[in-house]
Structure formats: C-alpha cells, structure tokens
Amino acid sequence: MKITAWLRKKGVIHFREQQAIMTDVDFNMMPVNEARSRVWHARREAVRDVVLTRDLRLSVHVSMQALEADWRALEAASATSLHQSFDWCAAWAATHASQLLLVRGTIDRKTVFILPLELVRGRFFRTARFIGSPHSNINTGLFAADFDPLTREQLASTLIAELTTKLSRVADIVTLEKLPFDWRGVSHPLASLPAVRNQNSSFQLPLLDSFEATLAQLNAKRRRKKFRVSEKRLEALGGYEHVVATTLDERRQMLDLFFEQKAIRFKALGLPNVFQDCETLAFFHALAAVGPTGDGQPLELHAIRLRGKHEGRIVAVAGLSRKGDHVICQFGSIDDDIAADASPGELLFYLMIRKFNAEGVSLFDFGIGDQAYKRSWCTVETVQRDIVLPLTLNGRLAAWVHQLAVRLKAEIKKNKRAYAFLQRLRQRRQATGGALTGAVDDD
C-alpha cells in the first residue's frame, strides 16, 4: 500500500491509468508536448505509416493495448527474450512514468517486428531505449520467425533514417542494449547495425536429456559432493525443503523477504542497493502478481525453507523467469545469520536446475554479469552488444558518451581495486539520497 500511495503521489500510476485509455497515434516529427496533446484529443484512427522500402512500413505507437495481439504472437518465438514479452513490459510501464515509443514494422499489413521502447529524459540527452532495460538480462526485440532475410538486409540500411524521421523531435538517441547478435542458433536481424560490445556478457547452462548428462558438462563429482555436504549440514539443523511460491500472497511474502535479505547483504558488502527505489519494488511486485501461463511465468519464486528447530525459516531465495524452454535467474539472496556454511544459495541452484531439467527446460540462464559462481555452473558465455543510433546532433555526442562509458566500465571491471572503490562511492551516494541508475548486474 505504501508503494502504491507513493506512486500515486508522484503521478506514476495516475499517468499510466490515463495512458491506458490513450488513443494510439503516430509520433512522426512531433515535439513531446504536441504529441501528448494529440494523444489526449485524437480519435481512434489508423496510424499513418512511413514507407521504409517498397514493402516494409514503419509506425510508432504509444499504446501497448493497440498492439497486444500482434505482440503476443511475436513473443512466442523461442529466440525472443522474455524481457520483451507483453507482461514484462506492461509491469514496467505500469510502475514507471516514461513515455512509450513502440516501433512497429509491417509488410502487407502483417506485423513483422516490434521494438518496444520508452523515452527517458536525462540531464543532457533524451534516450529511447528498450522498456525496462536497467533490469533486463538479455534483449532481442520481437521479430517474426519467418522474417524475410532479404528484408533483413534492407532493414539495417533504412531503420536509422526512418527512426530519425519518426523520433528526432522527441529523442536524441536510440540505444538498443544487451543484444546478442547470435542467440539460440539465430542471427539477429539488426546485427549489421553499428554496435559496441557491452561491458558484460551473460552466462548459460544447457540442460541436456538428463540431469546426469547436464552435470557431466561440469565437474559432476565435485557438484554432487557439494550437494551432499550442504544437505548433511542442513539435516543437522532439522532438515529443509525446496519450496515454490504458488499463491499471490506467498509470492509477495517471498519477494519482500528477498528485498530484506538483499538489502542487508548489499550494506554488509558496501555495495549500492539496485532494488531500493519504490518504482523498482513496485515493478517486481507487479511481475509477481502475474500467474503462470502455459508458456511460463514472468516471476517465479523459489526458496530453501528449514524444518525442525528453525521451522519455517527461509535461508535462500531466488527469482526466476520462464518462457518456454528458457529460464533466467533474475536475482537471489541468502540469510547470512543461519546455515551460511551449508551454502544454501548453491544448494538452491542445484535443486532448481534438477527440477527444470526434469520438466524439459533446455537452457538455464544465470543472467548478465561476470561472477565466479556463474562461471562454475555455466558452459556458455554469450557476448552482448549495444546498438547506438544517434538521431540528432546532440545524439551524436550522446553516442560518443555511451561508447566511452562502456569501454571505461569494461576497463574498470578488470581492475578489482578500482571497481571496489567505484562501488563504495556509489553506495555512499545512494546512502545520502543520490539516484542510482545501474542495472541488476550493477554495471
């Protein structure tokens, strides 16, 4: 309730409630104020398209609901990231006050791609980026599985010019971050656009025909030994169970416990808390409110719960997102006050991977960011890239700043002492009320 009240006070929920009834319009060559005015007063009518090539047409929309049917059809493709799914983006849009800019490509009135963007106004630049990009692990956009390869070649050469025409009055730059150019055997349609390597890779473990075969990719003997040690230590405390939150109340409670455990952990390590602000808390609660579907679930909560002497005590929590045969671990936390020597976090990963292996999942994704525990589990490292498209003269400067920042971050992360110093500075800034804009992987 406090989060909801805060969002209403700040105008976030009110803005989204109003935007839900907006007419869907084309943002071609309109300043922000004029575009908003047209949104409020225009009648429902067809969006005016701009011809990209003889067949491919581009339009920009502000209403997710107007595109929902096509959106959900495109997101069904296995190569589409769950971070561009309708439910994920809707949860973000409902809890953040940014303007949506939904770029749709059509051929013969059939939607062949959607780039779900939002407009973020910084101190110096106006950026159109993927919706919810700060908390995404991998982005792809949404493209039809049968998208014509010849059209792909045309797309890269025309998209820059047409986005400039459509968006240059409202945005300085388009940044499409965390894109894998080769993902699950598919080359990305935008791979020929100019890009810089993101400072972070993401890490995955393929799940094979059996759990034994999956472990065989790693040091299976060592994995099983660690599992037995963890079980033995927890049995000495009275035992444990692997639980999955099945009701909305259980998901809310487990999510709040994660936020509590993570805040304690960040503070102890002197790190900034990327989950601290009210909008982020509201976003994950909105995801948790979405129940499972036949294709998966935006946020599934797992935990290790103790029995016996510490009956009901949860010592590890993990938040997962599942789309088809792909599972991404969004976050995790542990209780440092009890059973820390049993490595409950590692135990939870073991149990979750075993469970999903049995359920037919083919890829367990540990997400973005290079950490030792990820490398110990994963056999695949996926390079991600940022496509940076300046739309204005100011955008050219923004593109240079973005590319420089990525390279500086990459160099800083190679220097453990410099990286630790920077994290301490960020934590102090946050403690004194400064804004924090880093991603989940903490950049």
Q: Tell me the Rg in angstroms.
A: 22 Å
Strand content: 15-25%
Distance between the termini: 31 Å
Total number of strands: 18
Largest sheet: 9 strands, mixed
**Helix content percent band:** 40-55%
Quaternary structure classification: single chain
Sum up the overall morphology in one term. Answer: globular
Structural class: alpha+beta
* Average residue pLDDT: 84
Figure out the total of helices.
14
Unreliable stretches: 10-23, 25-53, 430-443
User: What's the structural domain tally?
Assistant: 2
Describe the 3D structure.
The chain has 443 residues and is of the alpha+beta class. The chain folds into 2 domains: 2-201 and 384-431, no CATH class; 204-382, Gcn5-related N-acetyltransferase (GNAT) (Aminopeptidase), CATH 3.40.630.30. 40% of the residues lie in helices and 24% in strands. The strands form 3 sheets. Strands 1, 2, 3, 4, 5, 6, 7, 10 and 18 form a 9-stranded mixed β-sheet that branches. Strand 13 (296-306) and strand 14 (314-323) form a beta hairpin. The two termini are 31 Å apart. 42% of the residues are buried.
